[in-house]
Amino acid sequence: MLTKRIIPCLDIKNGRTVKGVNFVDLRDAGDPVELAKQYAEIGADELVFLDISATQEGRATTLDMVLHVAEQVNIPFTVGGGISSVEHVDDLLKCGADKVSINSSAVKRPELVNELSSKFGSQCVVVAIDAKQIEGNWKVHLAGGTIPTDIDLFEWAKEVEERGAGEILFTSMDHDGTKNGFANEALAKLSEKLNIPIIASGGAGNVQHFIDTFKEGKADAALAASVFHFGEIPIFELKKELKKNNIEVRL
Fold first, then answer.
1. Mean predicted confidence (pLDDT) in 67-71
2. Which of 6, 68, 94, 117 could form an S-S bond across to 122 if both were Cys, CB 3.0 to 4.6 Å?
């Protein structure tokens, strides 16, 4: 059985970690480099850094932060935000990132997924998809959830897999920050349709939510932010509970 992964997510804005609800009402959650170091020490399997305002501000993710984080952690970390070229990915990987996450840029130019996977390998390419239900259908949203599209979540996920994505990071905007649990029905459907790992994101509020997303949602990894940043769920305790529920994790 493959080991399930627990991944803290650091949303970065103006050099600080922030967290909101349904993608708005952001509040400060600390220094990203310090948080990264702590997470590496207390048992996180990977880290995700998203420069959440990069796309909206029309700029690339800050390389300095990636360098500082790489110096502090010994676990894989993924960087996203404003990534739109092979050259930028090359710079991020040289600074110490292990994977990159692309979202809006992949929708605007799907060939980018092909280019990145052929140049760096699919294991390096995470396609992040932010989606919410509109009249019962899951629709993809861009630019930090601010721009709705008519693109179907499941069709888009399948397309990027075929283009060479190595992993999908699916965030339910309806569940984000609510602490009411992950979008397990949509996750299970994604799991049926795809052959690559799926990271569940949006809605973690307690330990049971993680158990449910691995069992019902068939997720390969679970990502969360505020419950980790504000000490509501200690990662080591979470993993012990997952183990008790016959979910294979690295302790």
1. 90
2. 117
Q: Is 23 helix (H, G, I), strand (E, B) or coil?
A: coil
Q: Which of 11, 51, 176, 220 is the catalytic position?
A: 11
Tokens 């973690």 — which residue?
204
What are the residue ranges spanned by the domains of the chain? 5-244
pLDDT of residue 60: 59
Helix (H), strand (E), coil (C) string for 166-217: CEEEEEECCCCCCCCCCCHHHHHHHHHHCCCCEEEECCCCCHHHHHHHHHCC
Report the distance separating Cα 225 and Cα 228, nearest Å: 6
Give the model's pLDDT for residue 126.
98
Kind plus residue range of the DSSP H or E element containing 137? strand 137-142
Helix (H) or strand (E) holding 243: helix 235-244
Q: State if pTM tops 0.85.
A: yes
pLDDT in tens, 82-111: 899 999 999 999 999 999 999 999 999 999
Check 45, 130, 176, 220 and give the catalytic one.
130
> What is the distance, to the nearest Å, from the Cα of residue 238 to the centroid of all Cα atoms in its chain?
19
The CATH homologous superfamily to which domain 5-244 belongs is: Aldolase class I (3.20.20.70)
Q: Which residue in this structure is represented by tokens 């992993």? A: 167
pLDDT at residue 12 in the model: 83
Active site residue 11: yes
pLDDT digits (tens, 9 = 90+) for 21-30: 444 455 565 6
pLDDT in tens, 4-13: 999 999 888 7
91 flagged as catalytic:
no
